Amino acid sequence: MTDNLPGGTFTLAGRTVARLGYGAMQLAGPGVFGPPNDRDEALAVLRTAVELGVNHIDTADFYGPYVTNELLREALAPYDGLQIVTKVGAVRDDQGGWIHERSPEQLRDQVESNLRNLGVEALDVVNLRVGGGEDGHSPVSGSLAEPFGALAELRQEGKIKELGVSVVDAEQVAEAQSIAPVVTVQNWYNVAHRGDEKLIESLAAQGISYVPFWPLGGFSPLQSSTLDDVAARLGASPKAVALAWLLHQSPNILLIPGTSSVAHLRENVAAADLELPADALAELDTIAG
C-alpha cells in the first residue's frame, strides 16, 4: 500500500517510499557503539515504524558495528515492501572510533558484510560515504572515482541494485554520475545547518532524492529559541517543527529521523502531518542567519 504514507511519497530507486523514513543509527549503544540498552524496545521501534507506514530505512554496518543490521534482520527480514539503504566507506575501531576505509578491496569487504548481516543477496541502495573534514561530517573536495567505480563494479555483479553518495559536494555528485547512476544524495542539512539549497534544487530537477542526515541535529541536538517559540505557538514539539520544515523545502527531500524509543518514533511520524503557516516558515528561515 502506498496510500497515506507519512509525509507523502517519492520514487527512490524505482520504489514509492514515504518521504518520512527512519534512520537506524540510534538503535546501537551509546556513541553508536555496542548493543542497544533495550533490545526489545529497539526491535519494537523497527516493527512499529513499518506499522506506521515507514518503508524507507537507513542503516550501515558500521552502526554498532553490525548491531543495527542484525536488528533489522531479526525484526523485518525479508523486508517485503521496504527500501533498505545502507552505506559504506568507514569502519569502527576497538574503541568506537570512525575509520575511513575506501579502497576497492575494503569496500568489497564492507558490501559483503552488509549482505551477510542484513541477510540479503543484493543490497537495495548503497551510499558511498566520502567526506569528513575538521568536523568529521562535511564534504571534502577531491575525486571519488576510484571508490565509486569499485561500487559500480559491484553493482554490475548484482550485489548492489542502486548507488548513492554521502557527504559530498556538487562536483563530486557530477563525477559519480559520470561513472554510474546516482539515485540519492545524503548530506548534513537541517533548519540550522544550511548550504545545500542549489544542490537540492538540481537533484529535484533530475528526480533524485536528497536525504538530510541529522535532521534534528545529530550528536548536538538543535537548540534554538526561535524554533522553540514557533513550536510553542503551533502547539507542537521543536523536533516536529524541524522535520516539517525540511519536508516543506523540496519534494525530493526524504527524512530519516532516528530514535530508540517507540514514543519518540510516533512523535516523529506525526510531524509529517504538521502544517507550517507562512509566518512560521519565514521565522524558521532566520535560524541559519
Mean pLDDT: 95
Order of helices and strands: EEEHEHEEEHEHEHEHEHHHH
Q: Tell me the structural class.
A: alpha/beta
Shape type: globular
Kindly state the number of beta strands: 11
What's the assembly state of these chains? single chain
Largest sheet: 7 strands, parallel
- Contiguous runs where pLDDT drops below 50 for at least 5 residues: none
Strands of the biggest beta sheet: in what spatial order? 3-4-5-8-9-10-11
Our measurement of the CA-to-CA distance between the termini, rounded to an integer number of angstroms, reads 41 Å
Give the helix level as a range of percent. Answer: 25-40%
Task: Provide the gyration radius in Å.
Answer: 18 Å
Strand content: 15-25%
Please sum up the structure shown.
This protein has helices at 39-51, 67-76, 104-118, 145-156, 170-179, 197-206, 225-234, 238-249, 262-270, 278-284; strands spanning 9-12, 15-18, 22-23, 56-58, 83-88, 90-92, 98-100, 123-129, 160-166, 184-188, 209-213.
Describe what you observe in this structure.
Residues 19-287 form the NADP-dependent oxidoreductase domain. The chain is an alpha/beta fold. Helices cover 37% and strands 17% of the residues. The chain has 10 helices and 11 strands. It has helices spanning 39-51, 67-76, 104-118, 145-156, 170-179, 197-206, 225-234, 238-249, 262-270, 278-284, and strands at 9-12, 15-18, 22-23, 56-58, 83-88, 90-92, 98-100, 123-129, 160-166, 184-188, 209-213. It has a 7-stranded parallel sheet with strand order 3-4-5-8-9-10-11. It has a two-stranded antiparallel sheet with strand order 1-2. It has a two-stranded antiparallel sheet with strand order 6-7.
